[in-house]
C-alpha cells in the first residue's frame, strides 16, 4: 500500500473500496477463502472411509489375482492342446 501512496499527489486521497483494484482485491480474497475451505475439507482423513477404501483395494487385488491365475491356466491348457 505504501507504493500506491507514493504515486499519489499530496492532496489526493483514494476512495476506499472503489474501482477495479478494489474489485480484484475482493475477488481474490473471496476465491482464496473458498479454496482454503475446500483444501481443508479434502485434507481431512476419515478412518471409516480409509478402511472402506482399503477393503475395496484388497477385494480388487484378490479378484485380479484370481483372473491372472485363470489366464495362466488357460494358456497352459492351450500350450498342451496344440
Question: Please, could you describe this protein's structure?
Answer:
With 82 residues, this protein is mostly helical. The protein has 2 domains: 16-45; 46-82. The chain is 80% helix and 0% strand. It is built from 3 helices and no strands. It has helices spanning 2-7, 19-43, 47-81. The radius of gyration is 31 Å and the shape is elongated. The mean pLDDT is 75.
Give a brief rundown of this model.
The protein contains three helices and no strands.
Q: What distinguishing features does this structure have?
A:
mainly alpha, 82 residues, elongated, 0% strand, 2 domains
Distance between termini?
Answer: 83 Å
Quantity of strands, as a count: 0
User: Count of helical segments?
Assistant: 3
* Beta-strand residue fraction: under 5%
User: What does the radius of gyration come to?
Assistant: 31 Å
Average pLDDT over all residues: 75
Count of the separate structural domains? 2
Instruction: Output the structural class.
Output: mainly alpha
Portion in helices: over 70%
Topology as H/E string?
HHH
Give a short account of the largest sheet: none
Low-confidence spans: none
Gross morphology is: elongated
Topology record:
Layout: H1 2-7, H2 19-43, H3 47-81
Amino acid at each position: 500500500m505504501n507504493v500506491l501512496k507514493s504515486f499519489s499527489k499530496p492532496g489526493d486521497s483514494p476512495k476506499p473500496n472503489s474501482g477495479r483494484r478494489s474489485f480484484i482485491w475482493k475477488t481474490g480474497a473471496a476465491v482464496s477463502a473458498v479454496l482454503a475451505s475446500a483444501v481443508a475439507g479434502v485434507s481431512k482423513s476419515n478412518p471409516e472411509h480409509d478402511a472402506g477404501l482399503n477393503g475395496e483395494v484388497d477385494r480388487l487385488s484378490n479378484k485380479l489375482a484370481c483372473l491372472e491365475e485363470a489366464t495362466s491356466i488357460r494358456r497352459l491348457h492351450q500350450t498342451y492342446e496344440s
